[in-house]
């Protein structure tokens, strides 16, 4: 008869060993760090083996802990994959977590392309911002960062390049970066370094952006479209607007933001048929120039 020993404790240990902390494991399993610590301690007592060395600021797995975790993680991944395969036949819904501007400026405008290719797969978009943790109900997410999210696979999609954008009428008054004026430079509250980075690269580091400030890039880009000033655009948010002529780039200079956009997901989703179709589509779509996508949509 199979004897399964304290499954909650085993789950808590595997998550803590994989993520490197009780706090991260608690977030993944929706319990407190203290609860993870207690379950791991009880598991160690029942096994009669120390699985962690408790250091002041970090956890270090013992030799027994490393051996246990190396066997447990593939088992949990296989269980998650099996569950996904069993449920795939009865539900064809993908939940994609994105920030509000990414949803508005890229995902929603391009979703018809995916629906045309995969009409039987429903995509649900949930928003909340780049800093929102990966949701338990997410099939995948699209995040801006350095590509390091413990416990998640991260595949690069877009380079997050910065480039000022405005209306064509306003662009005609700008011959060189020195023509820019601080009060006309629209700001995004959560990205205060965008303008300083670009202005430094453009050779006008003493110029300070003092224009209207908005919470999200989408709001700033809308303000620029309405002629309020010059917004700092970030790719891919501006690609379709540039291709359609709604906005123009008065200067050719673009500056890397220092991060990239990534498709992030838990490893077991890679074997799920519907997610695999979405993954192939978005990686291909991210690699296509905006002008090519616009032409393809017009032809359709």
Automatic annotation (TrEMBL):
Pfam entry (one): HTH_1
Domain HTH lysR-type: 7-62
Sequence similarity: Belongs to the LysR transcriptional regulatory family.
SUPFAM superfamilies the record matches: Periplasmic binding protein-like II (SSF53850), Winged helix' DNA-binding domain (SSF46785)
PANTHER family, per the entry: HTH-TYPE TRANSCRIPTIONAL REGULATOR (PTHR30537), HTH-TYPE TRANSCRIPTIONAL REGULATOR TRPI (PTHR30537:SF74)
Biological-process GO terms, alphabetical: DNA-templated transcription
Protein name: Glycine cleavage system transcriptional activator
Lineage of the species this protein comes from: Bacteria, Pseudomonadati, Pseudomonadota, Alphaproteobacteria, Hyphomicrobiales
Protein purpose: NodD regulates the expression of the nodABCFE genes which encode other nodulation proteins. NodD is also a negative regulator of its own expression. Binds flavonoids as inducers.
Residue ranges of coiled coil: none
């Amino acid at each position: 008869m199979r004897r399964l020993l304290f499954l909650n404790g085993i789950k808590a240990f595997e998550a803590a060993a994989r993520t490197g902390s009780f706090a991260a494991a608690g977030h993944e399993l929706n319990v407190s760090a203290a609860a993870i610590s207690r379950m791991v301690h009880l598991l160690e007592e029942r096994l009669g083996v120390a699985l962690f060395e408790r250091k002041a600021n970090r956890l270090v797995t013992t030799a027994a802990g490393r051996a246990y975790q190396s066997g447990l993680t593939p088992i949990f991944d296989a269980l998650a994959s099996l569950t996904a395969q069993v449920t795939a036949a009865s539900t064809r819904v993908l939940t994609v977590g994105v920030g509000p501007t990414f949803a508005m400026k890229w995902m929603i405008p391009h979703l018809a392309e995916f629906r045309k290719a995969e009409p039987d797969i429903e995509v649900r978009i949930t928003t909340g911002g780049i800093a929102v943790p990966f949701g338990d109900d997410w099939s995948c997410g699209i995040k801006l960062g350095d590509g390091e999210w413990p416990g998640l696979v991260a595949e690069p999609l877009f380079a997050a390049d910065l480039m000022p954008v405005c209306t064509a009428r306003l662009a005609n008054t700008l011959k060189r970066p020195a023509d820019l004026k601080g009060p006309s430079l629209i700001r995004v509250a959560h990205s205060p370094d965008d303008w300083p980075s670009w202005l430094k690269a453009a050779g006008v580091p003493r110029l300070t952006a003092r224009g209207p400030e908005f919470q999200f890039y989408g709001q700033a880009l809308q303000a620029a479209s309405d002629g309020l000033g010059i917004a700092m655009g970030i790719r891919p948010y501006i690609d379709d607007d540039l291709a359609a002529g709604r906005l123009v780039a008065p200067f050719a200079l673009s500056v890397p933001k220092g991060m990239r956009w990534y498709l992030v997901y838990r490893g077991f989703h890679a074997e799920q048929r519907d997610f695999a179709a979405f993954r192939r589509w978005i990686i291909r779509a991210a690699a296509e120039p905006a002008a090519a996508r616009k032409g393809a949509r017009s032809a359709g």
